């Protein structure tokens, strides 16, 4: 027994390791990469804390060296998915009644393990499996995930603290129950941290979670699952079930106890999940919470008062960091004619210094795109551009998959502001630029807002304050994360809660209280100390 209002301190963001030449961090990371590469591992499902093997196997490869197999993983089928649902529902009773401070402790311990003994493993696994350079792996798999874990524990406390007013004769309370059933987390390949957040955020608030990782990220995600187990996650609370996307609909979405979906991925897959849930709506015990962060077509819009050096850096970093495989990536840019000549030269100068290749060579800024399917998809877009009269490749455009799925950083210039690559998400290292006439600034703002169906990220560059105000107002619904004089990527937990609307998702803002609120089903409790003993009102006495 214990009594007390226990408190979690407001966290600080995790500091980023730099992996400089000669540093111990760098040596350790290099050694871990070599160690992981040396040994092919077998990845089982983890259901009820136990390893389950199906014999139906897939392979995890290195995108920048696709003949290298890192692991063989087991694929869940109907039997294992049914088992995962059953054990999750069984684990729910004990998990939801565990004092919240102890649930928080498990995830705060996971953050400590990741900051310390697990840091290099998770980082190296993400570098190899998702082809991230050391900095990109560090800001994702380590720092962002640690921040998610620590800040979410703090936000959970803030939610629980929010209580209604009461009187002296009665006491009102809100009991922030978890959802009734299980949450299905369907996670993307591109951020280990996002996968971690999609499963741990609902779990922290007392929910049980079945986790379907993205095929291309199973390797790093498996290590993460092991870390959570080491942190003391009880069996069955999170079940790790790599599976075919098409089986999810058949064996998970039709379950009466589906209480929520926590999804990040493409708009297309999210739409299909939404439709399937709608078709099953009569079956469910409760209306499932459908939370999804999806595609993007991030923009950079420059005014002729922009600072050129800052703008060029934002274009390069925004478009080409992690091979443009961020939902937030700058994939279209609007540049005024009066600035183009000077920007063009500086852009070329910078592009010529970008090295693409194996991420084990720390000099490389970019690695490979994630897989053959993605490589082929981007290549087709570039072929389309090469044949078009409305656009031309200004820089790059070469693709080579002989060793890894490499695509050069590519800049396209188009004369059509509604050109295919200005509208659609390519999810690769490709930036399309539209050069507008300075006198058409207002119309071009309108084009920016209406060209793409997405509304995730956007950045504006200007030094003139009235212009900044105008851009902020006119582009109000174009981006859920809007940047002024900065690149549109790199949101930090606790600083820039992340998510967009339109076709970019439900905008439930990962890394904030708003997201956590989707995983609770509040129960209002009123206790009256001296209940009324007759039904009449005072006005009923007399005529
Ligand atoms: N808005 C955001 O916060 C955000 C963040 C990261 C990525 N993304 C988006 O994610 C996409 C890239 O990630 P991806 O390639 O992993 O996306 P994806 O949609 O291909 O896959 C996402 C997840 O859905 C699963 N899936 C695929 N088909 C399914 C089906 N029919 N039923 C159930 N699950 C299915 C995949 O296996 C994976 O686990 C991009 O569109 C990107 O913009 C968005
Ligand atoms: N939150 C990340 C993007 C996640 C999507 O891929 C950013 O802000 O760059």
Automatic annotation (TrEMBL):
Statement: the UniProt record of this protein carries the keyword Oxidoreductase: yes
SUPFAM superfamilies with a match to the protein in the record: ALDH-like
Biochemical pathway: Amino-acid degradation; L-proline degradation into L-glutamate; L-glutamate from L-proline: step 2/2
EC number(s) per entry: 1.2.1.88
Domain Aldehyde dehydrogenase: 61-513
Keyword annotations from UniProtKB, A to Z: NAD, Oxidoreductase, Proline metabolism
Source organism: Anaerosolibacter carboniphilus
Name of this protein: L-glutamate gamma-semialdehyde dehydrogenase
Any Pfam family matching the protein: Aldedh
Family: Belongs to the aldehyde dehydrogenase family.
InterPro entries: Ald_DH/histidinol_DH, Ald_DH_C, Ald_DH_CS_CYS, Ald_DH_N, Aldehyde_DH_dom, P5CDH/ALDH4A1, Proline_metab_enzyme
Highest rank taxon of the organism: Bacteria
GO process annotations (BP): L-proline catabolic process to L-glutamate
One GO cellular component term noted in the UniProt record for this chain: cytoplasmic side of plasma membrane
Catalytic reaction equation(s): L-glutamate 5-semialdehyde + NAD(+) + H2O = L-glutamate + NADH + 2 H(+)
């Amino acid at each position: 027994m214990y009594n007390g209002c226990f408190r979690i301190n407001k966290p600080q963001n995790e500091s980023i390791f730099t992996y400089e030449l000669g540093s111990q961090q760098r040596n350790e990371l290099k050694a871990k990469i070599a160690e992981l590469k040396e040994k092919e591992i077998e990845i089982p499902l983890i259901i009820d804390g136990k390893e389950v093997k199906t014999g139906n196997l897939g392979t995890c490869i290195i995108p920048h060296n696709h003949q290298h197999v890192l692991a063989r993983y087991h694929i869940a089928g109907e039997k294992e998915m049914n088992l995962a649902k059953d054990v999750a529902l069984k684990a729910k009773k004990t998990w939801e009644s565990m004092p919240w401070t102890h649930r928080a402790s498990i995830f705060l311990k996971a953050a400590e393990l990741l900051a310390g003994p697990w840091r290099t493993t998770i980082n190296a696994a993400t570098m190899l499996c998702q082809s991230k350079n050391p900095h990109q792996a560090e800001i994702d798999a380590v720092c962002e995930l640690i921040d998610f874990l620590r800040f979410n524990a703090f936000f959970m406390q803030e939610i629980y603290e929010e209580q209604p007013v009461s009187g002296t004769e009665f006491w009102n309370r809100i009991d922030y129950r978890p959802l009734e059933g299980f949450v299905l987390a369907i996670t993307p390949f591109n951020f280990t941290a996002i996968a971690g957040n999609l499963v741990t955020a609902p779990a922290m608030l007392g929910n049980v979670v079945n986790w379907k990782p993205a095929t291309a990220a199973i390797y790093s995600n498996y290590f993460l699952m092991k870390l959570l187990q080491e942190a003391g996650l009880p069996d069955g609370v999170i079940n790790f079930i790599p599976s075919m996307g098409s089986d999810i609909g058949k064996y998970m979405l039709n379950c009466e106890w589906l209480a929520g979906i926590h999804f990040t991925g493409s708009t297309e897959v999210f739409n299909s999940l939404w439709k399937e849930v709608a078709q099953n709506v009569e079956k469910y015990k409760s209306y499932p919470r459908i939370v999804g962060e999806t595609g993007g077509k991030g923009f950079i819009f420059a005014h002729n008062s922009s600072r050129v050096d800052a703008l060029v850096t934002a274009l390069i970093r925004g478009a080409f960091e992690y091979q443009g495989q961020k939902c937030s990536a700058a994939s279209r840019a609007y540049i005024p004619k009066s600035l183009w000549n000077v920007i063009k030269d500086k852009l070329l100068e910078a592009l010529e210094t970008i090295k693409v290749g194996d991420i084990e060579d720390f000099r490389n800024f970019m690695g490979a795109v994630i897989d053959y399917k993605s490589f082929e998809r981007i290549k087709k877009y570039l072929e389309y551009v090469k044949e078009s009269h409305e656009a031309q490749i200004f820089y790059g455009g070469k693709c080579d998959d002989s060793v890894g799925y490499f695509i050069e950083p590519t800049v396209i210039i188009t004369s059509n502001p509604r050109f295919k690559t200005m509208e659609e998400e390519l999810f690769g290292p490709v930036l399309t630029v539209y050069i507008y006439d300075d006198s058409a600034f207002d119309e071009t703002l309108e084009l920016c807002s209406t060209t793409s169906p997405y509304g995730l990220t956007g950045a504006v560059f200007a030094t003139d304050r009235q212009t900044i105000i105008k851009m902020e107002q006119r582009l109000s619904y174009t981006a859920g994360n809007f940047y002024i004089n900065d690149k549109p990527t790199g949101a930090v937990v606790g600083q820039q809660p992340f998510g967009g609307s339109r076709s970019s998702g439900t905008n439930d803002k990962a890394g904030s209280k708003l997201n956590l609120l989707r995983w609770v089903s509040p129960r209002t409790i009123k206790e009256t100390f001296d209940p009324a003993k007759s039904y009449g009102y005072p006005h009923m006495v007399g005529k």
